[in-house]
Structure formats: C-alpha cells, structure tokens
Amino acid sequence: MTFDPFGDFETAGYLQNSLQLKDPTEVKESEHLSFELSIEDALAYLAKKKPIDYKTVLKVHEILFSGFYHWAGKDRNELVPHLAVFKGSLDDPHSTIFERPDSIKMSIDYALKLAADKKRFRAHPGGVMGQLAFAHPFLDGNGRTILLVFMELCYRAEFAIDWSRTSKDDYLRALSDEIREPRERHLDNYLNPFVVDISSRDEWPETIGGIRGLDGLDKEDITYENLDNPQVQQIYKTYRTQPLDAHGPPESDG
C-alpha cells in the first residue's frame, strides 16, 4: 500500500513532492539531497534558538525539506488531522503506532521538558529520543528533523551520542521497542554505552551525513487509517498505556 494520505499519488507523486516523483528510490535520493543542502542552515538556526520549543521543531523541518515538500514545517494535525499513521499493519502486535495527530504537540512538549533536566537527560537519552519519535510530527522527514533537534538538546546538556559506533538496524529496533514500551527503557539501554562528553558543533554536518538509516521509521511500511475506525480507536485506548515515568502525561490515548 502506497503511503498516500493526500489521495493524489497518481497525479502529484509521493506526498505532493516538488518534482512529482513516484519512484521510491528517486524520492529518497531527492529528499535526502534537500536535507544535505540544508543541514548547516538548520543547525545554525537551532544554535541560536532559545529556548527550543514546538515551533522550533516545525521550523527545522521547514528549513530541511521546503525545497522538496511544499508542506514542510506543517505537522500531521494541520495536514491530515483525521488520520492515524503507523508502521506495519493494524493486525500486527509488533507494529509501531505513532501519536494521535491532536496530541503531537503535547508529546513533543513533554520530550522537551524531559530534556530540560540535564542530569536526568544524560542518564536517560533514549526516553527523550523515543518520545520525539513517537510524536512523529510530520508525514516524512521525522528521523532527520528529530535527530538535529536531539543533538542540540544533548549539546545544551553537555553530552553527545557517538553515532559512529551505533548500528542502523540495532538502533531502529531499539527505537521501535522504545516507542511501544517506554517503561522498559529499550533505547536507554542501547544508547547509554555511546554517551560521550560534549563535542564541537563544527563536526556535526559531517557526522550527520554519515549516519545511515535516519529515515528508517519514515519510509518503509508506513500505513494509515481513519481515526474513526473502531479498531484504531481500540488500539489508542491500550497502546502505551504506561507513561514514561510517574511525572509524565497520564496516557497516550488522547
């Protein structure tokens, strides 16, 4: 099933991209080119922004992808508020369900709140990254946008992740598990061995360019259903019913 939330793939191409591309490989290459050409501008914007808030996240996406998507910088709640987006199928218990459109901002705000406690953030970086990924604010470009925001948050907390030592498949597996079961701290367990002292921002564009699999939760097997589907409603009632910690938002069912 082609990811076609706008319902116009045949005429406008994948997600109404500026080149009206339909071939997945061409889409991926052109989208990533837009990203690579804009990394330094996005990082410069982040470095100056105090504090980082939800509008910052939207702006970073706009900077990175406006050359390819006219809707860059707009979240799912603005574009497709009636759709649930997930990775996998509704019948698969291992599918990754992303946040309801009307709760995306709340999830991002909560992740930013967690990151503001610098000592806790360094001990639990996976909780912040997992919460950002669960929010899945955009129709595409989530992984790369979130990574840049996450790196800046880490920098302000005076640590970094040595991404060069991570494995694409292991990271994405831990991230998916984190989104499903945040209380189990799957991503903390994976990332903690790679926590290092702060690194210069000057190295970031090269570092980011070398990280593989940043779009791993965006491109493959992404599907969608209408929020009024009873099966979707039932999933949201039971999915991630345990909050990240005792101080988190009650539940992610609305």
Offer a few descriptive terms.
254 residues; mainly alpha; three-stranded antiparallel sheet; two-stranded antiparallel ribbon; 5 strands
Span between termini: 27 Å
Query: How are the strands of the biggest sheet laid out side by side?
Result: 2-1-5
Shape designation = globular
- Specify Rg, calculated over alpha carbons: 17 Å
Tally of separate helices: 12
Name the structural class: mainly alpha
Order of helices and strands: HHHHEEHHHHEHHEHEH
- The average pLDDT is 89
Low-confidence stretches: 242-254
Strand content: 5-15%
Pfam families: Fic
Protein name: protein adenylyltransferase
EC number: 2.7.7.108
Enzyme class: transferase
Overall description:
Its EC number is 2.7.7.108. This is protein adenylyltransferase. It is an enzyme of class 2 (transferase). The strands form two sheets. This protein has a three-stranded antiparallel sheet. The two termini are 27 Å apart. Helix 2 (24-48) packs parallel to helix 8 (142-156) and helix 7 runs antiparallel to helix 8 (142-156). The protein is mostly helical and 254 residues long. It is built from twelve helices and five strands. 49% of the residues lie in helices and 7% in strands. Mean pLDDT is 89; it is low at 242-254.
